[in-house]
Design brief:
α8 runs parallel beside α10, α9 runs antiparallel to α10 and α19 packs parallel to α20. β11, α19 and β12 form a beta-alpha-beta unit. The protein starts with a strand and ends in a 7-residue tail after the last helix. Helices cover 41% and strands 13% of the residues. The protein has one domain: TIM Barrel (Alpha-Beta Barrel). The chain has an 8-stranded parallel β-barrel with strand order 2-3-4-5-6-8-11-12, surrounded by 6 helices. The chain is globular and about 55 Å long. The chain is built from 20 helices and 14 strands. The chain is α/β, with parallel strands linked by helices and 494 residues long.
Length: 494
C-alpha cells in the first residue's frame, strides 16, 4: 500500500486553498496529448532473437544479487512477439499517443554503426506501422538504459568516445524511422541513470562513485544529447519536420519549514541540482548551474579530493545551449528539504550524496515491496508551475507518472493516484497557466522494473509472468484512464 505523505505547510507563493482546494470539474485543452509509455528492455524480451546483441542490462541482471529474486528481462512481457496485441491495448484505451524506446543493441548488436541488424530495423518499422494504422502517434526514446554490452566493456558512458557513437546510433534511427516519428527523446532520466548506476550501485554498472565517475558520465550524456539535437536540426528536420527533446526526472522539493529562509533556499537549490544539472546546460546557459558547481566543489573539498566536475569549454557551452524543442518530465513524488545544517543532524539516508549538495533529505523515505515513494498529488502542480516559471517558453510533456503495487486487478489505489494527480495537473494548466501539453501514464503494462524485477508493478494491464504466453488482463485503472481520456477531463456530474 502507499505510504501517505501528509502535506506540510506550503512555501510562500502557494496558498493552501489553491493547493488543496475543491476538485476541479473542467476539461483539459482540446489538443492535450493523452498517452502511455514503456521502454524496450522492460517489455520486449527476445533478448537474443533475430540478431540482437547483449545489452548491459542483459549482463547485469544475470549477476546474482543484482535484481530482486534474480529476475531478468530475457522474456519480460514478450512484447517482441505480442506487438499487435499490445498496440490493440493502447487503442482500446482510446489513446492517440504512445511513448516507447528503441533498443540500441537490437539495431547495432555490438554498437558498431557499420554493423546494422536489419531484423531489428524491421521490428520497429512494424511497430510504427501498426501504431499508425491504429491512429496512434509515436514519441520515441533513443536511449532508455540498454546500451550494447560491447560498448559497456569499453567504459560505456565513462568513455568519451561514446558521445559520437551515440550520435551515429541516433543517425540510424532518424534515417530508418524519422519519416514516421514526430517527437524524439534523446535520453530517459539521465540523472537517475547516473545516480543509481554510479552513486547508489543499484543499477548498471553497480558502482558507488557519483562525485567521481557519475559526474563524468553526466558530462558525456549532455554532450551526446546536444550533438544528436544538432544532427537532427542539420540533416533531418527540414524533411521530417519532427521535434527533439529529453526526458528528465525530478521530485518536487518542499521546504520542511516554509518560514525558514535556509529551508526555502535549500528547496530551490535542490530543484536546481536535480532538474537543473541537465536543464540549465540545455535550456538556459549551456553550462551547469552555479549550485552544481559550488556544491560538488564543496563536497570534494570536504572529502579531501580535487573537484570532479568536468568543465565545458566555451564551444561546448554554445553546443549545449538551446538543444531541445520540448521538455519531457517524469514525476512520481515529493520530498521534504532541510537546510544542510539540519540535514547533517538527521544522519545518513538513501540520498546522502545528493543531500551533501542540496540539503535535501527525507528520513521517512521508505522503499517497500508494494510502494517506494510518497503519494503527493499537489507536488505535480507545484512542479509544473516551477518548470513553467523557470523555463517560460518551453512546452512540457509529462512523459512518465504512475503508481506501483503488487499487480492486483482491482487497483483502486492506482485509480486514486491518477485521479488526484491529473486533477492537480488540470489546476496547474487551467488555473495557473502551466505549459503542460501532454501526459503519458506509466505504464501500459506490468514490466521488468530494473533492480526490483517483477515484484513492483506499474501497469494498467496485469501481465502473468508465470504464463509462457504472458497473458495480459486489464486492471480497473485501465477503465478509469480510458474514461478520463474520452471525457478529456472531469465532468460536472461525476
Amino acid at each position: 500500500m502507499a505510504t501517505n505523505f501528509p502535506p506540510p505547510t506550503l512555501p510562500a507563493g502557494f496558498s493552501r486553498d489553491r493547493q488543496q482546494g475543491d476538485f476541479l470539474k473542467e476539461s483539459f485543452p482540446d489538443d492535450f496529448a493523452w498517452g502511455s509509455a514503456t521502454s524496450s528492455y522492460q517489455i520486449e524480451g527476445a533478448h537474443d532473437a533475430d540478431g540482437k546483441g547483449p545489452s548491459v542490462w542483459d549482463t547485469f541482471s544475470h549477476e546474482p544479487g543484482r535484481v530482486e529474486c534474480n529476475h531478468n528481462g530475457d522474456v519480460a512481457c514478450d512484447h517482441y512477439n505480442h506487438l499487435e496485441e499490445d498496440v490493440q491495448l493502447i487503442k482500446n484505451l482510446g489513446l492517440k499517443h504512445y511513448r516507447f524506446s528503441i533498443s540500441w543493441c537490437r539495431i547495432l548488436p555490438t554498437g558498431d554503426p557499420s554493423n546494422v541488424n536489419q531484423k531489428g530495423i524491421d521490428f520497429y518499422n512494424r511497430l510504427l506501422d501498426c501504431l499508425a494504422e491504429a491512429g496512434i502517434s509515436a514519441m520515441v526514446t533513443i536511449y532508455h538504459w540498454d546500451m550494447p554490452q560491447a560498448l559497456g566493456d569499453k567504459g560505456g558512458w565513462m568513455n568519451a568516445e561514446i558521445v559520437d557513437l551515440f550520435k551515429e546510433f541516433a543517425r540510424i534511427c532518424f534515417e530508418q524511422f524519422g519519416g514516421k516519428v514526430k517527437q524524439w527523446l534523446t535520453l530517459n532520466e539521465p540523472m537517475v541513470f547516473a545516480l543509481l548506476g554510479y552513486g547508489f550501485g543499484m543499477h548498471h554498472p553497480g558502482q558507488r562513485d557519483f562525485f567521481g565517475k557519475g559526474c563524468r558520465v553526466i558530462h558525456h550524456l549532455i554532450l551526446a544529447h546536444a550533438k544528436v539535437y544538432h544532427l537532427y536540426e542539420a540533416s533531418f528536420k527540414e524533411k521530417q519536420n519532427g521535434r527533439v527533446g529529453i526526458a528528465l526526472c525530478s521530485t518536487w522539493n518542499e521546504p520542511r519549514n516554509p518560514n525558514s529562509e535556509e529551508d526555502r533556499q535549500a528547496a530551490e537549490r535542490a530543484m536546481r541540482v536535480a532538474m537543473g544539472w541537465f536543464a540549465w546546460p540545455i535550456f538556459k546557459t549551456g553550462d551547469y548551474p552555479e549550485e552544481v558547481k559550488t556544491g560538488v566543489a564543496a563536497v570534494c573539498e570536504k572529502n579531501g579530493i580535487k573537484s570532479t566536475l568536468p568543465e565545458f569549454t566555451k564551444e561546448e557551452m554554445r553546443l549545449n545551449k538551446g538543444t531541445a524543442d520540448f521538455l519531457g518530465w517524469n514525476y512520481y513524488t515529493t520530498s521534504l528539504v532541510w537546510s544542510p545544517s539540519e540535514a547533517e543532524k538527521v544522519g545518513p539516508t538513501p540520498f546522502s550524496q545528493v543531500a551533501q549538495i542540496t540539503g535535501s533529505v527525507d528520513p521517512e523515505w521508505k522503499r517497500g515491496k508494494c510502494m517506494f515513494f510518497h503519494v503527493v498529488p499537489w507536488g505535480i502542480r507545484n512542479m509544473a508551475n516551477w518548470l513553467t516559471k523557470t523555463f517560460p517558453s518551453v512546452d512540457i510533456y509529462i512523459t512518465e507518472n504512475g503508481y506501483s503495487d503488487e499487480g492486483q486487478l482491482d487497483d483502486s489505489d492506482r485509480v486514486d493516484f491518477f485521479r488526484n494527480h491529473l486533477n492537480e495537473l488540470l489546476k496547474a494548466i487551467r488555473l495557473d497557466g502551466a505549459r503542460v501539453k501532454g501526459y503519458y501514464a506509466w505504464s501500459l503494462m506490468d514490466n521488468f522494473e530494473w533492480s526490483n524485477g517483477y515484484n513492483v508493478r506499474f501497469g494498467m494491464h496485469h501481465v502473468d509472468f508465470t504464463d509462457p504466453k504472458r497473458r495480459r488482463t486489464k486492471k480497473a485503472s485501465a477503465d478509469f484512464y480510458k474514461h478520463l481520456v474520452q471525457s478529456n477531463g472531469f465532468k460536472e456530474n461525476e
